[in-house]
């Protein structure tokens, strides 16, 4: 693995670098695949874990091992199996394809978006042997004409066309209602199939101590606690967006992989000119549509842009400057963080669904999920600025 790829994005590690928990997961996963490859019903292996717990890293390592066995000239139970890794995230797909270009046992065609793979397998009436799904919480749970998906549930369709499915799922990273699973819906779904669950709970991305993670977790549940202090993690709250950006530029010059990212609270229309994020004295353009093969975080010019959940989810930064936009506010009476879905500009996230009941609490959860994703990007530091004056003053008072 090159230094560029191992240091950037999600941490792609070789076997020696996997933690004991990750090695245990990889061993159990490979055993499960061999056991269920030729059984009558599709086997499901589900990996749970919060942002930054190394889910993508171990998934990538296990998939490389699977493909090495599949393409080996030495007879083994996995030889000549037809396998894919699926991710419904353009920027992460680019990273996986870059990895394929430098890893002998991998091919770029091994990595797919879900809809094209589903449609191709259905059209040719084929079965994949093993399908890995990274960020399964991004799969669609309703039809989507824009994405040319005409069925009801992408996970169900992938199961229908696979002998074994391995999926990474984190309910706290669901960012759209059209990907939403009711809290109690996943368990009975899994009960239809032979399945195994594995939970990763060790934080690998954010190097701050437990108090840093606890602070973020409390914030994304609306609770404010004392600002944590960790000599090895730079956590700062800013009174203006410009000094936050200046700090990110300094960090990028010395440590690289430092970017400003924001909640989806500022207007943006695809391919309709340049749209800006404003944060006090700071005004920077939103990330542009990226038509290159390089992920957003690896392109030097994006230091002068603001990244979104759609360009940064699943990736490591060294330092993250997070702008909390107008949808994130503060209730002084309850001393709680509150959110305003009517001020959230990503209306694609809130396309109505008539099967989910009351949507107001689900919309609020989507916003808190997006904050969780953003705040857990930085490995060595987190810088915050809140557009809402009341929230900004309360954070500064911490």
UniProtKB/TrEMBL annotation:
Span of domain Schlafen group 3-like DNA/RNA helicase: 44-388
InterPro entries: P-loop_NTPase, SLFN_3-like_DNA/RNA_helicase
SUPFAM superfamilies recorded: P-loop containing nucleoside triphosphate hydrolases
Pfam family, one: SLFN-g3_helicase
Protein name (Swiss-Prot/TrEMBL): DUF2075 domain-containing protein
Organism of origin: Lactiplantibacillus daowaiensis
């Amino acid at each position: 693995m090159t230094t560029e790829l191992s240091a950037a994005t999600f941490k792609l590690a070789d076997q020696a670098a996997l933690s004991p928990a990750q090695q245990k997961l990889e061993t159990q996963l490979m055993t499960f695949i061999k056991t269920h490859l030729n059984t009558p019903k599709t086997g499901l292996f589900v990996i749970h874990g919060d942002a930054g717990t190394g889910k993508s890293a171990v998934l990538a390592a296990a998939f490389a091992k699977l493909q090495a066995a599949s393409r080996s000239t030495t007879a083994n139970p996995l030889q000549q199996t037809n396998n894919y890794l699926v991710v419904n995230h353009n920027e992460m797909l680019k990273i996986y394809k870059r990895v394929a270009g430098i890893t002998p046992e991998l091919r770029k065609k091994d990595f797919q978006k879900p809809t094209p793979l589903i449609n191709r397998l259905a059209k040719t009436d084929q079965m994949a042997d093993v399908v890995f799904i990274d960020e399964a919480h991004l799969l669609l749970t309703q039809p989507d004409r824009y994405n040319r998906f005409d069925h009801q549930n992408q996970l169900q369709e992938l199961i229908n066309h696979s002998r074994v499915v391995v999926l990474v799922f984190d309910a706290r990273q669901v960012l759209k209602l059209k990907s939403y699973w009711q809290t109690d819906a996943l368990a009975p779904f899994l009960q239809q199939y032979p399945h195994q669950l594995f939970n990763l709970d060790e934080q690998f991305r954010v190097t701050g101590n437990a108090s840093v993670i606890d602070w973020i977790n409390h914030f994304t549940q609306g609770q404010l606690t004392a600002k944590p202090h960790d000599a090895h993690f730079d956590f700062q709250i800013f009174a203006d967006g410009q000094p936050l950006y200046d700090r990110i530029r300094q960090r990028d010059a010395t440590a690289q992989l430092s970017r400003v990212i924001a909640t989806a609270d500022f207007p943006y229309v695809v391919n309709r000119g340049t749209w800006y994020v404003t944060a006090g004295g700071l005004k920077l353009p939103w990330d542009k549509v990226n038509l290159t093969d390089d992920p957003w975080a690896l392109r030097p010019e994006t230091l002068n842009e603001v990244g979104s959940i759609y360009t940064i989810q699943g990736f490591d930064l060294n330092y993250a400057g997070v702008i909390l936009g107008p949808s994130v506010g503060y209730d002084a009476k309850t001393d709680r963080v509150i959110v305003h879905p009517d001020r959230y500009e990503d209306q694609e996230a809130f396309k109505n669904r008539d099967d989910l009941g009351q949507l107001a609490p689900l919309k609020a959860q989507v916003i808190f999920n997006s904050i969780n994703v953003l705040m857990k990007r930085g490995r060595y530091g987190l810088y915050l600025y809140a557009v809402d004056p009341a929230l900004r003053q309360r954070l500064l008072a911490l």
